[in-house]
Amino acid sequence: MRHLTPLLWTALAALATLAPAWGDDPLPQDLIAKAGRGDARAGLALAYRYRDGAGVKRDYAEALRWAHPAADRGYADAQDFVGWMYFEGLGVQRSPEIAAGYFKAAAGQSTAAAWNLGQCYFAGLGVDQDVPKALAAWTRAAARGHGRSASTAAMVYLAGDGVPADAKEARRLAERAAELNDPSGHVVLGEIHFRAGETEQARKCWTRVARTKSVGPIGPPTQPSDQLAAQQGADLLKLTAYRDRKPEPGRFALVTVPHVHQGWNNCGATSCAMLARAQGKPVGGWDVKRLCPSPPGTGTDWGDLLKASEKLALRWKLVTFTPDADGFVKAAAFARGELDAGRPLVVDFKYTGAEYPGGEAGHTLALVGYVAGEDLYVLCNPALATPGLQLMSAKDLQRYWRSDHYGAVAKNVLARPAIVLGR
Questions:
Q1: Within 279-346, where are the H helices?
Q2: CA geometry: angle at 163 spanning 166 and 305, to 5°?
Q3: CATH top-level class for 9-144?
Q4: What is the pLDDT of residues 182-215, one digit of tens each?
């Protein structure tokens, strides 16, 4: 099952070392000369250029040729660069093990490498999965000014995924992320305020992040990754009027589902962990993943997720609807009935386009509410910042709620699948 998502590209982009904004200017001759004389900074600058096709034809092998000497001499930023190339398999055979080795070597000096190393530990890619080690790497990076590390660690402490929940540490790290102006940090800190009954402070956090980008009344699921936090802030501002409101069957429902951060490509198991938590089972995304045979970093067959629910002493079942317009009408009516009864659903999305590897991508997330009068649905998305809530129009839900790779049972036939609570 291919499950790299438009939203997950946020994580992919964050894993990469950030390159200077070179544009399409041709390569300066003095830069080539400096790199040729062994200047590590110049060599890394050339590596960025070749990796990104900035002023030259994109050439991953050439990028590595310039980055490797600097990395071998201990230049931390170059080590992080080479590690990322191995992690992604760009110009070399993909090897998370080699990547993690480079990240370890550079983490003491490079905040990007510390962030990347934390990602490896959290997802169990290239190293044994170890959430405390991931948090240690992210906390060190946060102390040195890496906002994304601070906000991600705050989410993990807030959820208590792989470590005991620690509200005090979560708030401290969220405040650090907001101090560093990390967009996700503003979202998470706003949620911490909201849960504490500090609604005005929450609104201030979400207003601040919503103003960082031009946002619409509802954001499309395929919006650019740097737009996501701003749109989420706008969605949360709108949702403040609904989150404490009593449900009105047929008109409005919003089921509380504890949010869990998915980490690297673990949306299926994490969405099911959120479903389990909504039923009172305190499990995390990796707890569910370990109950399935697929390795970390790969998609999870929905048949295995259903078997995992049995091991957790929960009853889930798979329902599907046809991918046409009539099927959506039936699927939407079913979903609203479930939500009216206080039962969230796990759904699978499919995206198509040249921007995705192989021309398509998928994402699993939870459907937790609807507002009938505005033709809106509410999702709890493990790829977004806590609380993970986002709004989606009925039109977009109809377009994207479909999949032919949710599991072996799909047999490559397109449907609208959902994992629902057994009666």
A1: 285-289, 302-311, 325-340
A2: 125
A3: mainly alpha
A4: 999 999 999 999 999 999 999 999 999 999 998 9
